[in-house]
Amino acid sequence: MDITATLINLYHVCKRELWLHANNIRFEHTSDLVYDGKLIHENSYPQRPERYEELEIDGCKIDFYDARNKIIHEIKRSDKVERAHQWQVKYYIFVLEQNGIDGVTGLLEYPTLRHTEHVNLSDEDRKKIEEIKTEIVKIIHSDDCPPVINARICKSCSYYEFCYVEEEG
Ligand code: SF4
After folding, report:
1. Quick count: other Cβ atoms within 10 Å of Cβ 128?
2. Which of 151, 102, 159, 152 has the alpha carbon at shortest distance from 126?
3. Extents of the domains making up the chain
4. What's the predicted TM-score (pTM) here?
5. Whether CATH 3.90.320.10 fits 5-168
6. For 144-157, how does the pLDDT look when each residue is reduced to its tens digit (9 = 90+)?
7. Atom nearest to 148 CA in ligand 1
8. C-alpha of residue 13 to centroid of ligand 1, in Å
9. Residue 11, ligand 1, Cβ within 6 A
10. What was the pLDDT predicted at 141?
């Protein structure tokens, strides 16, 4: 299975969610990850689709790429899993670099929180991404589904019922 930005994100959110998603156990209708930015951008930035491009490249689907300024705009609803968002954007930058597009930076935007954050890719991050990719392959090919994490974010996860009803049952 190819590594995608979604897997990089999920690796930082929850290893169990990563495993379930990668093994095609899906409850898409309530998945907040997929719809997160898309729902918000229409209300927050109605002009944006005309100015920025949508870019699909090596497992990354970047909704808003400002090619002139080489800035990736990633819009999220909540910063509860901010670290996962940061690594998702770092991975976008990494993939663009691998495809010969250098000097790209990212901007994480939380319009409902009125908060933005710059994202850059350091040499250390490049090494870390290679390690994360190896870890992801190991996790998703394991026969065992990782344990539940009992975190606050579980309540808004599309696997919530699956995880906890199964556990209790
Ligand atoms: S409900 Fe919690 S433990 Fe289960 S997949 Fe989602 S985040 Fe992970």
Report:
1. 15
2. 102
3. 5-168
4. 0.88
5. yes
6. 999 999 999 999 89
7. 3
8. 9
9. no
10. 97
How much of the chain is in helix, strand and coil states, percent to nearest 5? 55, 15, 30
CB 9 within 8 A of CB 157: no
Dist CA 141 CA 40 (whole Å): 34
Q: Do residues 109 and 77 make contact, with C-beta atoms less than 8 angstroms apart?
A: no
Which atom from ligand 1 is nearest to the alpha carbon of 163? 4
- What pLDDT does 169 receive? 47
Q: Does ligand 1 have an atom closer than 6 angstroms to the CB of 160?
A: yes
Specify the pairing of strand 71-75 against strand 105-110: parallel
51 vs 49: CA distance, rounded Å: 6
34 sits in which H/E element:
helix 32-44
48/51 Cα distance (integer angstroms) = 5
Six token digits for residue 60: 């990354």
DSSP state of 147: P
How many CA atoms lie within 13 Å of 142's alpha carbon, on the beta-carbon side? Answer: 15
For residues 132 and 11, is the Cβ–Cβ distance under 8 A? yes
pLDDT in tens, 71-92: 999 999 888 899 999 999 999 9
Q: What is the pLDDT of residue 50?
A: 72
